[in-house]
Design a protein that fits this description.
Layout: E1 2-7, E2 10-15, H1 25-41, E3 47-52, E4 57-59, H2 64-68, H3 73-95, E5 101-105, E6 108-110, H4 112-118, E7 122-126, E8 131-133, H5 136-139, H6 145-154, H7 158-165, E9 171-172, H8 173-178, E10 184-186, H9 189-204, H10 210-220, H11 222-228
Parallel strand pairs: 2-3, 3-5, 4-6, 5-7, 6-8, 7-10
Antiparallel strand pairs: 1-2, 8-9
């Protein structure tokens, strides 16, 4: 599951529970609820930091054990597809959220967990532990449409996308910075979160208009917004 806490100008969405932080339907629903609360409570000068308890994983992706518990291959695929579809509104909510967003990764971010991190404006990661990993080719699974578009939208280097999507490379923090996927790395989970707080406070201090911020973000990723069904909004400037 997850918790949502507001400290000053910053919202903290924290994945809780076991160390893997698998994205089960219940966890995904709890994230959607938390993001709805952020949207409703956000003011000029707010920012969101998403992180996770523990030091092993940010999120290890979809709950494959829950999918396999269906008892048949078709049932497992149906459950996996259910999770894929249910994560899509999470990505859409983050792309349209009227506040700056930061993912502070205390450990590994794999598959759907990697996608969750990429849905934020900024990603901060540990240098001493943790990798980014898209496991689809290793598992024999194609990429869902919005996963592929997210990769094209957020990872500008063709060779970096190839390594992520076609080689299933496990990318450590400093390499992720060189590939342009991660903004900065820090030497512990504690320092990663502290750096995210500093960045969040800097961004919140600008007191931007949230609706304008969200529309500018959406305009940066038109293909992604198209597949997510996010239409542009007309905002009348307040001159």
């Amino acid at each position: 599951m997850c918790t949502l806490e507001k400290r000053g100008d910053l919202f903290f969405l924290t994945l809780t529970g076991d160390d893997d932080h698998r994205l089960s339907p219940a966890v995904i629903d709890s994230i959607i609820t938390a993001l709805s609360q952020v949207k409703a409570q956000a003011t000029r000068g707010s920012a969101l930091i998403t992180t996770a308890q523990g030091n092993k994983f940010f999120s290890n992706g979809f709950d494959l054990a829950w999918a396999q518990a269906a008892g048949s291959k078709s049932g497992a695929l149906d459950r996996l597809n259910q999770m894929v579809l249910s994560l899509k509104p999470v990505v859409a909510a983050l792309l349209s959220l009227p506040v700056p967003t930061i993912a502070a990764l205390p450990g590994h971010a794999a598959a759907g967990g990697f996608m969750l991190a990429l849905s934020h404006d900024y990603i901060l990661m540990r240098s001493d532990r943790g990798v980014l990993y898209m496991s689809e080719i290793d598992l024999g699974l194609p990429f869902p449409d919005y996963f592929a578009v997210m990769m094209r939208s957020k990872i500008s280097s063709v060779s970096a996308r190839r390594d992520v999507m076609q080689r299933a490379m496990k990318i450590k923090g400093e390499e992720a910075v060189r590939m342009g996927i991660v903004d900065s790395v820090h030497d512990s989970a504690k320092n990663t979160l502290e750096a995210a707080v500093r960045l969040g406070e800097q961004l919140a201090g600008r007191k931007w208009d949230g609706e304008v911020y969200a529309e500018i973000r959406k305009s940066m990723y038109p293909e992604l917004c198209g597949v997510l069904g996010l239409a542009p909004k007309v905002i009348v400037p307040k001159l």
